[in-house]
Design brief:
heterodimer, A: 147 residues, mainly alpha, 82% helix
Chain lengths: 147, 68
């Protein structure tokens, strides 16, 4: 049996998490559009690639754990209970399919309009990770809203 | 043939005078999970179904049934 206070805290944090994930996905997509609109000579600077890698790893860790930064084991367990785990698995599966389909599209596209390796990886990772993140945020928001 | 898992979680919870959050605390899940089970958005695992039945003091069969 958990404390009612923990349930209420988990409720607030769960709603905040879904909003945060949605915003994070928007920031991630915005960053990628900046990447593709900037000069090919400067877009792969060490600082930019480093920042992008850190953001991708952070998002992947959030998707894998549901929020490893959250403190308090009881609240973390409530936040990552059955529904959230199922939502996370479904989102990861969607991310997988989007990644594979994007990779195939990039492969075919590169026959007609060659892409650099970096550009191709950016497109594939952005769509795959972004789709999983948005999917999780939307599923969680929907679950909170149903009445 | 379509099979749908139905439940009377809301009725049993209401009969105890508990909120979704109170039942969630007793079972050890989030309020969202109770909400999605009540609204048949989420199909609970056998473990959760048993915990819910135990918390409400009813049998699993009374709480959940399959409609064909």
């Amino acid at each position: 049996m958990h404390d009612l206070h923990d349930v209420e805290v988990a409720e607030r944090m769960g709603r905040a998490r879904s909003r945060l994930f949605f915003i994070l996905a928007m920031v991630f997509f915005a960053g990628q559009s900046l990447y593709f609109t900037s000069s090919p000579l400067t877009r792969d600077s060490h600082a930019r690639v480093g920042a992008w890698l850190i953001l991708v790893i952070l998002i992947l860790m959030l998707l894998a754990t549901g929020g490893f930064l959250l403190r308090g084991r009881n609240v973390r367990d409530l936040l990552n209970d059955e529904t959230s785990r199922l939502n996370r698995l479904a989102s990861q599966a969607l991310g997988f399919w989007v990644t594979i389909i994007t990779a195939l599209v990039v492969y075919v596209e590169s026959i007609f309009d060659p892409l650099t390796l970096n550009e191709g990886i950016h497109v594939i990772v952005t769509l795959g990770v972004g789709a999983a993140l948005i999917s999780f945020a939307v599923r969680e928001r929907r679950a909170h809203r149903i009445d | 043939m379509t099979e749908v898992l139905r439940n009377r979680l809301r009725e049993e919870r209401d009969s105890k005078g508990w909120t979704q959050a109170e039942l969630a605390a007793r079972v050890g899940v989030s309020r969202k999970t109770i909400n999605t089970v009540e609204n048949r958005v989420f199909t609970p695992s056998a473990t959760l179904a048993i915990k819910l039945a135990e918390a409400l003091g009813v049998s699993v069969e009374r709480l959940f049934w399959i409609e064909r």
